[in-house]
Every structure is written in structure tokens, then in C-alpha cells.
């Protein structure tokens, strides 16, 4: 009997920003799998929501989260209808509320990607998975701010999702520093979304810089050139 090859999932990197220059810059590395925005990031960009979302969707092929602002299910559905017409890769972001999860269920049943945001407990993440969420966004930084360990929340959600083979992807959000990224990878989170400065910090190591300096000094002493 031929066994099928084991599918090894990758950890996806999303940029948590609505700044186009940063998104283009990160997309050029080939390491960017998607983008998340929220009303605060849109306000910070100073751009028109629809226009900037359309431009982001044209830069990245992966999911681009655009958040509804209504609080009731009926209006959330109307907003989602407008947002999902922007591009095929728009992922509708809804808050983790009763109405948000009703909207999540209706949209995912219809084949639309949904990111359930503002998740602060493993029980909430369980509800999001049962509502068919494509992604659930636990906010680790804000959890830390409130004296809790944000990464413990990710561990709990990973355990619960694996217990029941939920397909909802754990999208670690409110990432503030590189250790959040490291811990997310150790735990096996599916996605992490971080501000561009945190993603850039992942590349850095003082010994890499020091090593390059040393190699370049020694290379210069040879008087050679490759080109
Ligand atoms: O991904 C959610 C994020 O935008 C919130 O981050 O740093 O405001 O808690 P922060």
C-alpha cells in the first residue's frame, strides 16, 4: 500500500498594517502571505478604507482582512457584501460577539473567508471554530498588557483545535516583539500577523552584522573582486 505523503503546514506571516509602502517592501521578500487591517490601522493610514483595501489586495495574493464596523448581524452582512466585492482575496473580519459569529457562520457557509477577531479566551476560540471561522485572532500583546500570558492562550487554543481537528487557523495577533513570533512557531500557530517593524526585526542578529563586517574587511585585504 502506498501511503500519502504527510502534508507539513508552513507558518504564514501576515503584515498587520495598512501602509502600502511597508506592504510592498515586505511582499518583495517573498515571505509575506497576507495582510490584516482593522479600523485603527485604517485611521492611522489616513486613507479611504475601500481604496486602500483594493490596493493592498492587488499587492498580495493571500488573504487581506477587512473589518466590519456594525454591531448587529444584519448590518454586518450588508457591510461584508460590500467588502467582499473588493477582491477575491478579501477576508471579512468580524468581532467575537454573538452577532459576529452569526455573520461568520453565514459567510463561511457561503464560501467567504472570515477572520474572527478580538479573541481573548480559549472558549471564545472554540466558538469561532464551531462557527466555521477561517481564522481566529487571539490578541497576545493585549493579553500580556492585562497581566496574562498571551502565549498560554495560544497553547490552549492549539490543544483544543487539535483535539477536535478543527480547521480554523490560529492567527496570532497583537504581536509586539520577536519572542511572540518565536513562541508562536514553537506552539505551532498557523499564522502570525505583526507590524512591519517586528517582521523586519526577525531578520536581524548582531552576530550576522558583525560577521559580514569581518568577512568584508578580510575580502578587501585580498584585493579581489567577483564581478
Ligand atoms: O492584529 C491586531 C492588532 O492590530 C492589535 O495590535 O498592538 O494594537 O494590540 P495592538
Describe the structure.
The structure is a single chain. With 227 residues, the protein is α/β, with parallel strands linked by helices. It has one domain: TIM Barrel (Alpha-Beta Barrel), CATH 3.20.20. It has helices spanning 20-27, 39-45, 49-59, 73-84, 98-109, 122-130, 140-145, 150-164, 178-187, 196-203, 206-222; strands at residues 12-16, 34-36, 64-67, 90-95, 114-119, 135-138, 169-172, 191-194. The protein has an eight-stranded parallel beta barrel with strand order 1-2-3-4-5-6-7-8, surrounded by six helices. Helix 1 links the parallel strand 1 (12-16) and strand 2. The longest helix is centred in the last third of the chain and has 17 residues, at 206-222. The mean pLDDT is 96. It binds SN-glycerol-3-phosphate. Residues 16, 36, 38, 139, 141-142, 173-174, 176, 193 line the site of SN-glycerol-3-phosphate.
Give the CATH H-level superfamily.
Aldolase class I
CATH architecture: Alpha-Beta Barrel
- Mean pLDDT over all positions: 96
Strand order of the largest sheet: 1-2-3-4-5-6-7-8
Small-molecule binders here are: SN-glycerol-3-phosphate
**Element-level helix/strand string:** EHEHHEHEHEHEHHEHEHH
Structural class: alpha/beta
- For the termini, the CA-CA separation is 53 Å
List low-pLDDT spans: none
How many H/I helical runs?
11
Rg value: 20 Å
Task: Please count the beta strands (DSSP E, at least 2 residues each).
Answer: 8
Principal-axes geometry comes out as globular
Query: Beta-strand percentage?
Result: 15-25%
Helix content: 40-55%
CATH hierarchy, class: Alpha Beta
Amino acid at each position: 500500500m502506498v501511503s500519502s505523503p504527510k502534508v507539513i503546514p508552513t507558518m504564514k506571516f501576515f503584515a498587520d498594517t495598512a501602509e502600502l509602502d511597508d506592504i510592498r517592501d515586505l511582499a518583495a521578500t517573498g515571505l509575506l502571505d497576507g495582510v490584516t487591517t482593522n479600523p485603527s490601522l485604517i485611521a492611522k493610514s489616513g486613507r479611504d478604507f475601500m481604496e486602500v483595501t483594493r490596493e493592498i489586495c492587488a499587492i498580495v495574493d493571500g488573504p487581506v482582512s477587512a473589518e466590519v464596523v456594525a454591531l448587529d448581524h444584519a448590518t454586518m452582512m450588508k457591510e461584508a457584501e460590500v467588502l467582499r466585492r473588493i477582491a477575491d482575496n478579501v477576508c471579512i473580519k468580524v468581532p467575537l460577539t454573538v452577532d459576529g459569529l452569526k455573520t461568520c457562520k453565514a459567510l463561511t457557509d457561503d464560501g467567504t473567508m472570515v477572520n474572527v477577531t478580538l479573541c481573548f479566551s480559549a472558549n471564545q476560540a472554540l466558538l469561532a471554530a464551531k462557527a466555521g471561522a477561517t481564522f481566529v485572532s487571539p490578541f497576545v500583546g493585549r493579553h500580556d498588557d492585562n497581566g496574562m500570558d498571551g502565549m498560554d492562550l495560544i497553547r490552549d487554543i492549539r490543544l483544543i483545535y487539535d483535539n477536535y481537528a478543527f480547521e480554523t487557523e490560529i492567527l496570532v495577533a497583537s504581536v509586539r516583539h520577536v519572542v511572540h513570533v518565536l513562541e508562536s512557531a514553537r506552539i505551532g500557530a498557523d499564522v502570525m500577523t505583526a507590524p512591519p517593524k517586528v517582521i523586519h526585526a526577525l531578520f536581524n542578529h548582531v552576530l550576522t552584522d558583525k560577521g559580514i563586517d569581518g568577512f568584508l574587511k578580510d575580502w578587501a585585504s585580498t584585493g579581489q573582486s567577483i564581478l
